[in-house]
Amino acid sequence: MTDMTTANFSGRAVIVTGGGTGIGRATARTFAEQGAQVLVVGRTAARLAETAADAPGIRPLTADVSAPGAAELIVNTAMEAFGRVDVLVNNAAVVRQTPLGDIRREAVEEMLAVNLLAPMYLTQAALPRLSENAGVVINVSTAIGQRGWPIPGTELYAALKAALDTLTRSWAVQLAPRGVRVAGVAPGPIATGIGHHQGLDAEQIDALRTTLIEHVPLGRLGRAEEVAFWITQLARPEAAYTTGAVLPVDGGALVG
Ligand SMILES: NC(=O)c1ccc[n+]([C@@H]2O[C@H](COP(=O)([O-])OP(=O)(O)OC[C@H]3O[C@@H](n4cnc5c(N)ncnc54)[C@H](OP(=O)(O)O)[C@@H]3O)[C@@H](O)[C@H]2O)c1
């Protein structure tokens, strides 16, 4: 009898950007545990090496997804290593504070380049390969992109994720005839990512954590593995009738 826990992605090749930490690391490991070969991409070699440790199916690629030519480099590296690309997970992102009154150009440009333009170019570069294999693109969004948010500072981050959701829906429609599915997950507050908000001190991060939990009906932060679970589920062949959806994985934050 086939072991379904390891057979789902056997023979499949997956790219996960931002695979050195948090949700990306959990996603890469979940795919690898289910038989996939995974290319993890990030800027910090040591983090990627930790993701790949004890996981023979995971290969690291140190690259800045927003650099010119990065999209082609990533897809070419996956093709050289695995000979195919079946799943692309656009997960790498940065959070920069941009409250009205203190919107700085470099913060805006960095978030635009990493959070929106890089997924666009990478999807474009991967598309010919994905089309060959009835492939899947999963864009990692955020629950706060789908509602108004009272805390100043992350609204541009949220707006760029909302733009990514729009691409998810339109690409899903446009790529359906080519057999490529496109979906998203919209995490609520996940424990691993809270400390990554640049520009906040420890006290502000504590306050943010408390406020975030107040917005979550389930009353806790999520775990990276709980997001990775749905990313891999959406990529499975059994999810073949799902495209264009952006799934909240947020403890009920959107409906609460
Ligand atoms: N944690 C949350 O509460 C939460 C909630 C909603 C949505 N999300 C989304 O979930 C995704 C993962 O976030 P996370 O929580 O796991 O945070 P994270 O640990 O900060 O992960 C982001 C990853 O992206 C990589 N990265 C950043 N800029 C990059 C670049 N220019 N090129 C290549 N890699 C880059 C980082 O590695 P290097 O710095 O080493 O490059 C890091 O591994 C993001 O899309 C985020 O917006 C998170």
Automatic annotation (TrEMBL):
This is SDR family oxidoreductase. InterPro entries: NAD(P)-bd_dom_sf, SDR_fam. It comes from Streptomyces endocoffeicus.
